[in-house]
Automatic annotation (TrEMBL):
This is Ferric-chelate reductase 1. PROSITE patterns: DOMON (PS50836). Residues 1-22 form the signal peptide. The lineage of its organism: Eukaryota, Metazoa, Echinodermata, Eleutherozoa, Echinozoa. Residues 52-168 form the DOMON domain. One of its GO terms (biological process) is regulation of postsynaptic membrane neurotransmitter receptor levels. Keywords: Membrane, Signal, Transmembrane, Transmembrane helix. It comes from the Eukaryota. It comes from Holothuria leucospilota (Black long sea cucumber). The chain crosses the membrane at residues 207-225. InterPro entries: DOMON_domain, FRRS1L.
């Protein structure tokens, strides 16, 4: 019995418990080791009730061509991740997941905050869930597209952008409108992990080692004392 219990503890930790976000579609991995994360507040965990207002993570696919992006928010309208050249809403390439389970692309122009719908190119495998006031989604976004215009930002190394999260506005006719809240990173980062080491967006990493150590230790104690 003790051995079974220990196995369950270890498996649950490795597969599902924080900081692994098992609740989110396809969002496995650990912030700071197998994926990068940006969230509001910093370092929050969407698996813990009341922890997050908005969460994003991304990792490079094995073929180095795309980012697997996950977004989460407790909102009934949309959650959007923008790649920003200005550090603010202006001049951003924006990807939103909506309550009616669409992925939308839009652009904020260089000189204004208004958001204009764009053709959804470069996005595959979309999966959007809306359940009990929470939107979570995942999709692949190609790093670059040489044949498209420069509204489609080139995310390859060494280009850097500031991540922006916005949520809680309105969605009408496949278009997102004024967010009710947002936040942006404090610095430009590389989304292409081939040159993003040390970008400072990895708050959960430090917990991982000690937690796994204690999970293993308690499992062995259970085996020993049964
Ligand atoms: C979302 O979660 C945050 C953090 O717990 C909370 O402050 C906020 O009120 C929630 N918003 C909604 C719309 O539930
Ligand atoms: C992807 O990039 C990594 C790091 O530069 C490299 O080691 C790996 O061989 C690349 N994979 C492919 C399929 O190009
Ligand atoms: C690149 O953009 C073109 C349109 O210019 C589009 O047809 C094509 O599907 C895009 N490629 C990828 C990989 O998204």
């Amino acid at each position: 019995m003790g051995y079974i219990f220990a196995s369950v503890v270890i498996t649950a930790y490795l597969v599902c418990l924080p900081p692994v976000h098992c609740m989110i579609t396809k969002d496995t991995g650990v912030c700071g080791s197998t994926k990068s994360c940006y969230s509001i507040p910093d370092g929050c965990n969407p698996d813990v009730a009341g922890s997050c207002r908005a969460f994003s993570s991304w990792s490079l696919t094995a073929d180095n061509t795309s980012l697997l992006i996950n977004l989460w928010s407790n909102t009934t309208t949309y959650i959007a991740l923008g790649f920003s050249k200005s550090g603010e809403m202006k001049d951003s390439d924006v990807y939103a997941c909506t309550f009616d389970m669409e992925v939308l692309r839009s652009r904020n122009e260089e000189d204004e905050n208004d958001n204009f719908p764009q053709e959804l190119i470069g996005v595959t495998n979309p999966s959007v869930m809306f359940d009990q006031g929470i939107i979570s989604c995942s999709f692949l976004r190609v790093l670059e597209n040489d044949t498209y215009d420069d509204t489609f930002f080139d995310l390859t190394c060494p280009n850097k952008y500031t991540p922006i999260l916005a949520w809680g506005g309105a969605v009408r006719d496949s278009r997102i409108f004024e967010h009710t809240d947002r936040g942006h990173g404090h610095e430009e980062i590389s989304f292409d992990e081939r040159c993003s080491s040390g970008n400072g967006l990895h708050p959960s990493t430090k917990l991982h080692g000690p937690v796994i150590f204690f999970a293993l230790l308690s499992s062995f104690l259970v085996i020993f004392f049964q």
